Amino acid sequence: QVQLVESGGGLVQAGGSLRLSCAASERTFSNYYMGWFRQAPGKEREFLASVSRSGGGTYYADSVKGRFTISRDNAQNMVYLQMNSLKAEDTAVYYCTADRSPSFVRPDYWGQGTQVTVSS
User: Fold this and answer.
1) What is the Cα–Cα distance from 71 to 57, expressed in whole angstroms?
2) In Å, how far are 8, 50, 114, 120 from 95, measured between CA atoms?
3) Which DSSP string do the residues of 26-52 spell out, in sequence order?
4) Which run of H or E residues covers position 22?
5) Residue 47: CB atoms within 10 Å
6) How far does CA 100 lie from the centroid of its chain?
7) Which contacts (CB < 8 Å, 24+ apart) does range 85-90 have?
8) Alpha-carbon dihedral of residues 46, 51, 53, 55, nearest 10 degrees?
């Protein structure tokens, strides 16, 4: 069982930046691909980004490519999402996920989410 705890959400003005963090409980953290999703009010959950087990490979949704950067620190069991040039439409609850496969169709584990609000 992997427990994921997100932090770093909050209120930011459009054009600003936030860095989300996710702490994982699992000692075999490096066995998991890690990803971030978000869900805005009235919308479906959206995949944003994923990072390979080693951290050497990343993948982004078109909606955040060039603005968001995912990274991980396997020594600290941490994964991060650096978000720049934030827009009002980035307002959502952001979730950290862990998956045994790189597909992220149905991640194995989810965090509780952290709210990001971007004011225009």
Assistant:
1) 9
2) 12, 12, 7, 23
3) -TTGGGSEEEEEEE-TTS--EEEEEE-
4) strand 18-24
5) 18
6) 16
7) 85/15, 85/17, 86/12, 86/13, 86/14, 86/15, 86/16, 86/17, 86/18, 86/116, 86/118, 87/14, 87/118, 87/120, 88/14, 88/118, 88/119, 88/120, 89/40, 89/118, 90/38, 90/116, 90/118
8) -160
The residue written with tokens 């720049």 in the block is 84
pLDDT given at position 68: 98
Question: Token pair of 76, please?
Answer: 């600290």
Token reading at 120: 């225009």
pLDDT per residue as tens, the chain (120 positions): 899 999 999 999 999 999 999 999 977 899 999 999 999 999 999 999 999 999 999 999 999 999 999 999 999 999 999 999 999 999 999 999 999 999 999 999 999 999 999 998
